[in-house]
Amino acid sequence: MTSTLEDIDTPHSLAPEWMRARPAVRASAGRKYAAELIGTFFLVFTAGISVITHNALAPLGIGAVLVAMIYAGGHISGGHYNPAVTMAVLVRGRIGALDAVAYWVAQLVGGLLAAAAVAGEARRALTAAPSLSGHAMTTAAVAELLFTFALCYVVLNVATSRDHPANSFYGVAVGFTVAAGVIAVGGVSGGVFNPAITLATTVLGLFTWSTLWVYVVVQLVAGAAAGSVFLALNPEDK
Fold first, then answer.
1. Alpha carbons 166 and 153: distance in angstroms, whole number
2. How many of the other CB atoms lie within 10 Å of CB of 176?
3. N or C: more exposed end of the chain, with fewer CB within 10 A?
4. Residue 17 scores a pLDDT above 60
């Protein structure tokens, strides 16, 4: 079935233009996945190289690159760049299960490619992974849960709500949510909020593999919770 430009304006989708699939994108899903891979790559690379080199402006850099990548690829894929965000959008009902799995694969591949690039650029700066356990692990998990939820909640409200059919603030809102989270709890949990970054930083040796599984589960639960809360607060917005 061919799509027309008129299809975009029909009532079936009230999401902003950048969150809706354009005709060409619907004909080539590969473009969405490529956009997710590229955006996740630059997000993870910025996070990894900033942390490894102990850059004091890491939170600002991570938030800024996320803003840039959302504006660059949001109109193609929705600009998730985060499996937890994809989980939230899946629960919210704006993406199908097969598409979500493909997004996750693209995001994780992008994250691993970025990890390889960071390792090549800053191998000498790698240090032993901190081992979190007991109270420290619980505290870190709660921090990741709260700010991953905040991130996903912001994405759903600024990018998929029918109350914002067209806006220009979604990228700034999402990017600064990440920056705020990293500044607030970066010293507690590392300020990850993203399973793709968690995997990449574990491969780089910044986290232990036992920490990886706790973070990934917490982050995906936060994404699902954000999707459920959005639907509960916006019952007419489906």
1. 18
2. 18
3. N
4. no
